[in-house]
Amino acid sequence: MLEIKSVSSSYGEAQILHEVNLTVEDGQVVGLLGRNGTGKTTLIRSIMQVKPPQVTTGSIRWNGQELCGLLPNEVAMLGIGLVPQGRRLFPSLTVQEHLEIIPRRPVSSGRQAWTVERAYELFPRLGERRGHRGNQLSGGERQMLAITRALMLNPDLMLMDEPTEGLAPLIVQHVEQAVRTLKAEGMTVLLVEQNLRSALSVVDSVYVLETGAVVYNGTASELSNDTATLHRYLGV
Ligand SMILES: Nc1ncnc2c1ncn2[C@@H]1O[C@H](COP(=O)(O)OP(=O)(O)OP(=O)(O)O)[C@@H](O)[C@H]1O
């Protein structure tokens, strides 16, 4: 379980997150929604201990262990995979090389280890592109590679920062299906999304951020029916 309690984070003097509380139970897919600039990526970076920002107060616990003060690779080795916004890839490495260079952690009990072949089963398109280099991939292929790279770590929690951003509708469906497949296998997911429809099709519950604070927490169906919140905080 991921437990975020009273977390505030700052870039220098600028405090962006204000006493954020958020919980992701094991096996849940939780959506993190909110307009541009409300602090979603800042929260993801705070969980991963990627600096900046600096977490100034509060605690972030994963399976009871405090993450604040660890290095990002130490957080990763506790079983937290990151799909960063912007799908950072190496332009000169092939798809296969991207997947092979990821350090592995021992797979958690009851789980099936991720292999390169299993990654290609999740996204067959990537298998067809295994010899292509990072700079030869389409936006959708880059996103698929970013997701599978994070999986190669054998994580128990995936932090996904806007995985459908800028993708064509068909590719968005592939990404949504991949999230459902991961959930069916017991993966815990914190999913940042701007695409409300896409988020609501895969998440169990949602948190909405506004100016760095949680202003809403409910199930996906509660949010779907809450037109006031949708209008006020998500502009729909
Ligand atoms: N490196 C940085 N230094 C200073 N301020 C930053 C930095 N990164 C982000 N911010 C500021 O923090 C605030 C929250 O940004 P953040 O990227 O977390 O929002 P977001 O909800 O993820 O938005 P988006 O959907 O646009 O990615 C914004 O006001 C942004 O300008």
TrEMBL record:
UniProt keyword annotation of ATP-binding present: yes
UniProt KW Nucleotide-binding keyword: yes
Organism, as annotated: Ottowia thiooxydans
Keyword terms of this UniProt record: Amino-acid transport, ATP-binding, Cell membrane, Membrane, Nucleotide-binding, Transport
Similarity comment: family membership: Belongs to the ABC transporter superfamily.
Ranges where the ABC transporter domain occurs: 2-236
Protein name: Branched-chain amino acid transport system ATP-binding protein
InterPro entries, A to Z: AAA+_ATPase, ABC_transporter-like_ATP-bd, BCAA_Transport_ATP-bd_LivF, P-loop_NTPase
Any GO molecular function: ATP binding
Domain of life: Bacteria
